[in-house]
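for the record, two folds in this file. i put them one after another cuz i was lazy. first one right below, seq on top, C-alpha cells after. the second one comes after a little note so u can tell where it starts
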Amino acid sequence: MSQVIVADQHPIVRLGIKQVLFNELNIRDVIEASNMDEVIWHIRRSRCDLLILDCTLPDRSTLDILHEVRSYQAKLPILVHGPDSCDHFALRMIKAGATGFIAKSCTLIEFTTAVRKLLDGRKYVSEAITEQLIRELQKDRSDPSWEQLSEREYETLRLLVSGKRITEIAQMLSLSTKTVSTYRMRVLDKLGLQTNADMITYAINHNLNV
C-alpha cells in the first residue's frame, strides 16, 4: 500500500487532496503536514512513496526543501502544486528535484494522472510547462536572462520582488545578511539592473510569477 505525504498550509486543501486520494486512487495511508519542518520530520521517520508539496508553504524556501528532501530520500517522487501561470517557477522546481508539477486549478483527471505516473516511477508536467521547457532550450543564451541565475540568486530575486527585506530573506534561507546582499548584487549584475525597483520592473516584463 502506498504512503503519501500531503503538505499544504491550508487544512481544507489537505482534506480535499486526501479525499481524492481515498476515493479516486484508493490510497488510505496519507500523512498531513502544514509546514516545511513537519515535512522533513515525516520524511526522516516514515516510509514514503510520494510527497505532494504546496510550493507556497510560508516558513521556508521550496527550493531549499526540495534539496533537503533529496538528501534524505534521493529517489522519492515529489509532486509540487502551485498557482496558475507559473511556468517559470515550475521550471525551477523541476530543476531543483521535483518529479512533477501541476497547477492548483488542475482538473481531477490531471491530478490523478500525475499521482499515478509518479507512483509508477515516471514524471509529470503539464503541456504548458513542456512547451516552456522547449522554448528554454531554443533561447539565445547570450542575452541577459533570469535563467542564468543560480537557485540562490533566483530565490533572492523572487523574495526581494515580493517585498521581503534582506534581513527577512536571510532568516527564511538561514543565511547571513551579508550573503543575501552578495546574492542581490550578483542578481543586479547578471541582469544589468541597478535597484530593487528595476528588479520589480524586470519581473513584470518577463512574466515571472513571484
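(here's the note) second protein begins now
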Amino acid sequence: MGFWKDVWYGPSTEGNAIEQRDTALPSDPSTALEVPVRSTSNRSVTTGDALGLSAVYRAISIYAIASKQLSVDVFRGSTAIDAPAFIKRPDVNDSFPAFIEQSVVSLALNGNAYWLVSRDAQNRVTNLEVFNPLDVLIETNTRGKPIRYSYMGTDYKPSDIRHLKLLRVPGNVKGLGPIQAAQADLRGALDTATYATNWFETSGVPNGYLKTDTPLNADDAALLKDQWHKSVKGGTTAVLDSGLTYTPIYLSPKDAQFIESQNWNKTQIATLFGIPLRMMLATVEGNSMTYANLQDEKLQLVEFGLMGYLTEIETAFSELLPGSQKAKFNLEAFLRVDTAARYASYKTAIEAGFLEVDEVRAIEGLDPLNVKDVADANAPV
C-alpha cells in the first residue's frame, strides 16, 4: 500500500485509520507521549482531524514545499565530494524530492519519521524507504531503548531503521510533534470551524420574521408561516395580507465567517509550527510588506522552523555515510536575494578570495567553466 494512500484514507474496515493506529501504537506507556486535552470535547485531535484545518495543512505544506526544493551536498571535512547514490536518490522507487517531502511531513504530522535501510553484502547502503509512522510499533527494553521495530507485520532490528524525531523528551522513545503537543489549541480551532459551518442550520437564529399588529392565534400564525415558506421555496412572488411585513435578519459576511476567531486560530497554529504569520496568509495589521520583511521572515522560517526538520535528515544521512563524511542541505538557492545584490556579493567574495568562479556557478546551479573560460572570466577588463 502506498505511503500517502494509507495516510489519507486508511483501510475501510478501520474507519479513519489515521486515528485508529495513532492511539494504538505502543503497548508500553513509556513509549508514548500523552498530552491532556482541555476541551469541551473529550476526543483527541488526530492527524486526520488536524489536516482538516486549512491553517495546519498550510503550515505543513510550507515545510514540505521548502524542503523538497533543496539539494544535499556531502563533505569530507570542509571539502565537497561526490554524493553516493543513496543520497542522490534515497529510494530507487521514488524521486529525491518525494523522499524528503515524506520525511518532513511524517515529522510534522507525527513527530517521528522512520527509514528502512537496505544494504548490500559489503554493508553499503543501497536504498532507503520512508515508512508510514502510524504503522510503526516499537518494543523497548527496561531502560526504554528500542530493541525491535515492527511495520505491517514485519519485525526489524534497530540497525535496520533510522528513527528521526522532531522533539526529544527524556524518557520517551518517540518524538513529540506539534499536533500531539497542542491538543487543546487544535481542538479549539476545530470547534470554531465546526460552529461556523453549522451556524445557519443549528444556531437557532431565524432568517427573518413576519410581523403584524393584528392579533393571531396559533393556527393562523402557523398557516401564514407555511404559506410564506411555500412561496419562498417555490420562487414565486409572496403576497402578504393581514398587515404582515417581513423583516430579514442579516448576518454580515464578517460575522458569518467568524473572521476574528479564525484569524486567532491561524495565529495560534502559525506559532505552533514556527511559521511567520504572513506566510500563513493571515491578516497582519499595522505592518507594511517590504522586501526586507520578506527576507527576514524567510530567514526566520529557516533558522527557527525548517532547520528542526532538516537537521534530523542531515544527521540521519550522515550516520549512514562512511567515515567522517557529512551530509548538508544546500540552502543557498532558497535564501538567495535579488539578482543584482546576489551578483554583487559574489563579486566581492571572488575578489576577497572566499569563492572561486566555479563555486559561484555551482551555487547558481550551473556547470563549471573550463580552464580557459575561468582565465578569461578573471582577466582584467
